[in-house]
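Q: Convert this sequence to structure tokens.
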Amino acid sequence: MKTALHIAYVCADRGVPIGGRKGASAHVWELTRALVERGADVRVIAARTDEHMNPHTAPAPVIDIGDDRATRQMRQLAFTDARSERQRTQAAEIFGLLLNQAMTRELERLHRRWRIDAVYERYSLWSHAGAGFARAARVPYLLEVNAPLREEQRRYRSLENAAAAASLEAVLFRSADHVIVPSSALRPYVVSRGARAAGVRVMPNAADPALFHDHQGRNRRTAGSGEFVVGFLGTLKPWHGVEDLVRAFRHLHRRFPGYRLLIAGDGPLRPALETMLRRFGVHGAARFTGEVDHREVPALLAQMHVAVAPYPRLPAFYFSPLKVFEYMAAGVPVVASDIGQLSEILVHRTTALLHRPGVVTELVARIETLRRRPELAANLARAARRVLRRRFTWHHNADRILALIKRRPGRAGGRNAVRTVAMGAVHASR
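A:
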């Protein structure tokens, strides 16, 4: 007799490969593991898996619809005549819609042999199969919205079928039994786009303290002599503020030549950052690891005396920075910008030292304080880890998700609306 909840975890975003090295990939991996450890039976249905993913170490079975022969043929056909940037954008959008055929087929096939109890989906721009299946099967549908993807696509990349994207987004938000957002800043967005206010849940990102237990404190030397390592974990993109960190490091190294900079991650800003470091004459005191497997993160954080989240001043800070939760779990003292959710989860001089976004002199002063006052650094790190263990673990998030699934049955209807919007988008692309 079946006792465990059967959850289909849908990730149709090809930019979030399962088992990959991006923070979003780590999010899917860790939440899946927590759901399984809390007693759920999970199947991950994804548009893409990382080429290095070991299925034997995955927290749950992964079904890669992108590896399906028919899917590969659809992608080839979609991009065959795409020459210009606009044509490639159109092809990518059409392919994103066509993926729903394979996703729907796989969900229905899985349901016949395994009986899905709920669909949990990480929102992606053109995915509607999860919502359509859930409504037809009358099972709960939970939609995790980590960013205003449509707005990001329009602002930072390109979006050809803007009207179709907006319509599909609204239908998905209305269709979900619950919309889960990682920060309170995203709540007004999803409600304005159709989500029921009563069905929206704010669920910050998290970390697993057990993952960092074996490395806690290892290799972390006390300040006073020798080296003092300032660290950053994450993708090197403009909105992460790493340029401010490099500017701060220039001043720090002048004050104390034992300062070292450890940047764990990679991204489009790396060449510019390396140029800045060479121009400042401190390139030899910095190390870039390149892309980091999530399993390597605990050992890297253990090398840091202080870990930094130097976000610049942004007009809409809707992030729930995974790096900060992992800093807290690892017991590393944190220096972070006083912005958005960071201002909510961290308390200045209690669990971290905060600075005004973009104010490099304050960033320098906060890091220097922790170098000169190792007892304060240790107290902040211990307090932050206690807060994380009490409020921000993946097990906490898994418990909340399972409670939502058990509390609210799925609603019928909605599938035709999703299909209508999707078909309209395909016709608009022709």
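The longest helix spans residues 85-114.
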